[in-house]
Amino acid sequence: MYMNAQPHRYWSGLAENRLTRRTFAGLLDGRIPFIRISNFASREECEALLASAMKEGFSPYRGVEPVIDRIGNTVFEYNSISKHEYFEKNIELNRVQQRMFDGSFNPMERIIGLLQRQAQRSAGVAKNMAGKPYYAGLVRRIEQGTLLHVDFAPGEQPGWEVADVREQLAWNLYLRVSGPKSGHTHIYERQWRPADDALKEGVYGYNARVVVGAEEAIFAPTVGEVVIFNTRNFHYVEPARGERVSFTSAIGRLPSGELVLWS
Ligand SMILES: O=C(O)CCC(=O)C(=O)O
Ligand SMILES: [Fe+2]
Question: Were 157 and a residue from 152, 153, 171, 249 both cysteine, which residue would form a disulfide, CB within 3.0 to 4.6 Å?
């Protein structure tokens, strides 16, 4: 009798090592904690992209503590400023991004190709109503860690086209990790709902009470590897010893099923 009983599989143990139509759907639905794609880029490609980035120079996110440095534009920072200024700023920052890719490789094209061929979804950079592209693809240094947070445009950026997404994921390619035993990413089996904003702390953080009792999945960033996870799930990054640099964007699913990428 008991022999046929299915052993209980914990959510944190359901991480996948392959991007397929099935695993991608599992991530959108929150049924699995993350998908890892090892060898997305070679160590040489990662170093070349970082060298190009260093030529352009990093700057900190507006108003974020602990400090996070990045190259590129974010909806997060323009949400309370102006949409018009955001799309204007993209023109210059897209040129900066193109220069970085010309000196190394184009990780945006590569991830979009994988989403199309392996996840079998139509995918591209998000556009506004007038057809202007969002900025997609930051080079980011998270070395002092992050607060516990979510990234979910429908809750955070109402009024922007990307707020139409039904689910939101992030992909992170790790370019340089000097302390592999530090800087781990923690993801909880607990998705944001509007009432959680009562526990908001600081510009983007939440009180840890919001995840009490929730299961936690943890991964260590590895150079050349991409990890995709659902950013409606509460998550945070531990402080790193030394450098921790990634290339990243959001991936949202529109009601039509199409995937859109932005930062
Ligand atoms: O750097 C990471 O591992 C995750 C950072 C993060 O919060 C995100 O990509 O949404
Ligand atoms: Fe995040």
Answer: 153
